[in-house]
Structures are given as structure tokens and as C-alpha cells.
């Protein structure tokens, strides 16, 4: 979902509201966490992402 903010911004989407009392179950929490960590680590290691985290988006 990297870059999804740019897509929403181009559509002039200002906010997404999620409301409710239900909990979404993960079928395999260990595999989910491994996939999440891999995507997250790749994202934060790129120059553009590192710059955005430090200075904000252009």
C-alpha cells in the first residue's frame, strides 16, 4: 500500500473514517507479521521514504 496517499490525494480524498466494534482476525498472525515487516523494512530503507520520514513529503 505504499503510495496510496498520493492516489487518495489526486482524487482529493481528505480522510477515511473507520468505525465499529468488530475485530478483524488474521488467519496466520505469524505470516502476516513477517510480510508486514518485510514490506515495512523495504519501504523505510529507500532514499525517498527516508527523506519523507525526516523532512515530510515534497
Shape designation: flat
Number of helices: 3
pLDDT averaged residue by residue:
76
Computed Rg = 15 Å
As a percent range, the share of helical residues equals: 55-70%
Task: Please state roughly what percent of the residues sit in beta strands, choosing from under 5%, 5-15%, 15-25%, 25-35%, 35-45% or over 45%.
Answer: under 5%
Structural class by secondary-structure content: mainly alpha
State the end-to-end distance: 19 Å
Question: What is the chain-wise order of helices and strands?
Answer: HHH
Question: How can the largest sheet be summarized?
Answer: none
Low-confidence stretches: none
Strand tally, please? Answer: 0
Would you kindly provide a brief summary of this structure?
With 58 residues, this protein is mainly alpha-helical. The protein has 3 helices and no strands.
Description:
The chain has helices at residues 4-10, 29-44, 47-55. By secondary structure, it is mainly alpha-helical. The protein has a domain at 30-58. The longest helix has 16 residues, at 29-44. The two termini are 19 Å apart. The mean pLDDT is 76.
